[in-house]
Amino acid sequence: MLSWDVGRETSSAIFHECLNEAKREFANLTNSKGLLSMPYSLVKSEANFLYCMNDMSDMLPIKHYFGYTVAVVFVIEIVQLLLALWMLGRFIFAPISLLILLAYNFWSSHVSIDIVEKFLRDQQMISPKRYCYTDIIAITGHFREKLGQGGFGLVFRGALLSGQHVAIKILRNSQFNGEDFINEVSTIGRINHVNIVRLVGFCSEGSKRALVYEYMPKGSLDKYIFSARGTSNRPFSWDKLNKIALGVARGIDYLHRGCDMQILHFDIKPHNILLDHHFNPKVSDFGLAKLYPKDYSLVSLSATRGTIGYIAPELVSRNFGIVSDKSDVYSFGMLLLEMAGGRRNVDKTMENTSRVYYPSWIYDQLAQNNGIIEINNNMEIHEIERKLCKVGLWCIQMKSSNRPSMDKVVEMLEGDTDNLQMPPRPFFSSSQPISARQSSIQSTSIELSTISEKEDYSYSDK
Length: 462
Prior knowledge:
Elements: H1 3-33, H2 38-55, H3 65-126, E1 129-130, H4 133-139, E2 146-150, E3 153-159, E4 165-171, H5 178-188, E5 199-205, E6 208-214, H6 222-225, H7 238-258, E7 262-264, E8 273-275, E9 281-283, E10 290-292, H8 326-341, H9 358-368, E11 374-375, E12 379-380, H10 383-395, H11 406-414, H12 434-448
Parallel strand pairs: 1-5
Antiparallel strand pairs: 2-3, 3-4, 4-6, 5-6, 7-10, 8-9, 11-12
Helix pairs in contact: 1-2, 2-3, 7-8, 7-11, 8-10, 9-10
Main location: membrane
Subcellular location: Membrane
InterPro entries: Kinase-like_dom_sf (IPR011009), LRK10/LRL21-25-like (IPR045874), Prot_kinase_dom (IPR000719), Protein_kinase_ATP_BS (IPR017441), Ser/Thr_kinase_AS (IPR008271)
């Protein structure tokens, strides 16, 4: 037999002897410590195998055989470690990771649901509620108490389940188109301002449409400022009248500057100013309103309408300027002059023809007299009356660029009369004879008549 064969048999015998000893070591450790100690037993038995091979290395015919054995055992150790990590990852780390992932998903979904619910609750508080028509019938008590009527329909008083009183505008389908309805809901649906009437809800069910407003028990402003000629029988004190004017101005200024989108009302007039229990004013009726970006400077003429006597000149002809927020300023100026004069700006029943057009007459009076003057039944003009008139005359400048913005109007109303300068002479307050002025007014009225005036309504406490 060759020496190589003898060496191979000797090496094989040594290897099997050490391997059997390692197997016995593994079996003993596993039996004594249980299956959970299998990784430890495996490492321990392999170490025992290496010790055995090291002790018998002198008997090996090939001296490098032990080195090869160590390398092989090291590779096996690495493979076992990787296998152990894989088993741990699959049977321990994977379930733990899955549980953590499920817990995170549950938590995040729960938080997400809370955020959505909070958003929906906030939206429900801010946005008007949609009612079905049977709800409208129940709220009004089968339309039992009518508050008023007009071209757009009827207004009824009602009460919600919470006990809150509301005014419900039932719209006539032929008179109130879909665009006006959308304007009304979208414009004031999200507005929350002390001087803007609040839209509580709406109804749109087939051809039946209704708008549910907060109830304004004192009705509209026109029935108070036109209730008596002159200043002696006014229902409001001058201080109160100034507060009402200031409240209206703040409401319009909020529409122009306080919202995400600039809101142009296009129908400011006494009839659309409602009063609460304490005669605090609120701007209402946004059927003609339009929404524009705050930096939007060009408004289409075709998109605008208004009421004769309050509509700005640029809404008739671009020769007077562009249509903008200054158009509402003009309407407010006409409103302010009617509040100050206690009469409509154009009153053909006046005995004195010079007083037919109030803005022209009051401008002449203010321009010709630096001190106290007597107007309206020989009553001395009040300081606040002078201030309201001056601010109103600033607002009705024919060129829109010459009018102040609403925030400037608020500032003027909050200030003293002495700080107000006399405005330039408006177009209708020229020095021409009275007959020429009336002719000019009539021709302008004919031009304005091309813009239809829709009959409106107000509601008051019965």
